[in-house]
Structures are given as structure tokens and as C-alpha cells.
Amino acid sequence: MNITLIGTGNMGSALAKQLTRAGHAVRITARDPAKAQALAAANPGAVAATPADALAGSNVVIVATGYADAVPALRSLGSLAGKVVIDITNPLTADFMGLTLGYDTSAAEEIAKALPEAEVVKAFNTLFAQVLADGPQFADGQVAPAFFAGDSERAKQTAKALIESLGFTPVDAGPLKNARYLEPLAALNIYLGYGAGLGTAIAPTWISKA
């Protein structure tokens, strides 16, 4: 796929690594052009781009900024009509131990409201950057799941294919409003990783007797 990646933080860096490793063409843009250039240089198959040029040829946009910066960053790209926007953000409080939104809306829904021309899908938000960077394999042959939710079937299928290309197990979590549950799940994962001291090499999953 041709992908525009917004953000060069821990999550953006992890995704740049895995996306280029999987053979995707990645255009990286960020508030700091030097950071975008450095991340692109570290990942063959990626190029740095200004916001004005970042959409060139891309059919997928991944927003890997903080939630508060997501809509301005997406708007800086220009028209997103017909684009699949993958939102990986979580609306975290300043101490990372809570959410600023929850239950009656979500970061994903608010982004979709602000950018109605885009096809927004929630994905990757329940995974730590370390897990994304290291890859999906866990102990005893386990594979980390990546949940995705959206109202556009095309966007969901795009997210599913992207998740599969990175080796994670895609789990369809339903419509976009279910991001109201995925974002608190991410907050619980963050608490377990940092607050409870389990570390960042963990990921939420469901088990089945079948």
C-alpha cells in the first residue's frame, strides 16, 4: 500500500519500521521536518514529506500523533476525500492514567465528525509501541491481536489487510462507536504496563475454548 504516516514519536517510529519492513511505500510527515527526515532515513522504503506533499499517491493515512494534535495534523494534508484514515490515538490525560473522553464518544468518532470526507477506522491503539516495534510474536507461539473498528466496510477491509501484512491477528471490533471501548481497553493496558509494573511487552487479547 501507499501510506502517509503522520508522527515520529514512539508509535510513529514503530509503525514506520514495520510498514517498510512489510514492503509498504511510506511517506512520513511531522511538525518537525528534521524528525521526519531522520525517521525516513532510518527506514528504507520511507520518504519524508511536507504536509502539503504528504498525500501524493497515498490511499491510506495513519495518524500517530497525540489525540489533541490529530485533527489539525490531518487537516494540514489537504482534502481527505476518499482516503482511509487509520486513527491509532488514545485521548489520554496528562499523567497517561486516564481518558479525557469516554463512553458517550471516542477519539475516533470525534476525528470522524471533524473530517466527514474521510473514512475513519480505529486500529492499533491497544498495542504498546514496543510491541509494534518488536513485532507480533509472543511466547508459546502466541500472536498479538490488533483490534479495528469502523463504519466504512472499505476502510475496515483496508485496516484488516494492513494488520495482516504486519503479522498481527486482525480482530473486527464492530462499528466506529466501539472505539468507546477500545480506547478504555488501551487505558487499562497502559495502567497494567506502567501502573501495575507489568512492562510494555504485553497486549490485551481474548481466548476461546473452541
Give me a quick take on this structure.
The chain is an alpha/beta fold and 210 residues long.
Protein traits:
7 helices; 8-stranded mixed β-sheet; alpha/beta; 210 residues; Rossmann fold; globular
Describe this structure in words.
This protein is an alpha/beta fold and 210 residues long. The chain is built from 7 helices and 8 strands; from the N terminus they run βαβαββαβαβαβαβα. The chain has a single domain, classed as 3-Layer(aba) Sandwich (Rossmann fold), CATH 3.40.50.720. Helices cover 35% and strands 17% of the residues. Strands 3-2-1-4-5-6-7-8 form an 8-stranded mixed sheet, sandwiched between helices. β5 (84-87), α4 (107-114) and β6 form a beta-alpha-beta unit. It is globular. The relative contact order is 0.15.
Q: Unreliable runs, pLDDT <50, ≥5 residues?
A: none
Radius of gyration: 16 Å
Structural class designation: alpha/beta
Q: Can you count the helices?
A: 7
Specify the CATH class.
Alpha Beta
Mean pLDDT: 96
Report the end-to-end length measured between terminal Cα atoms.
Answer: 34 Å
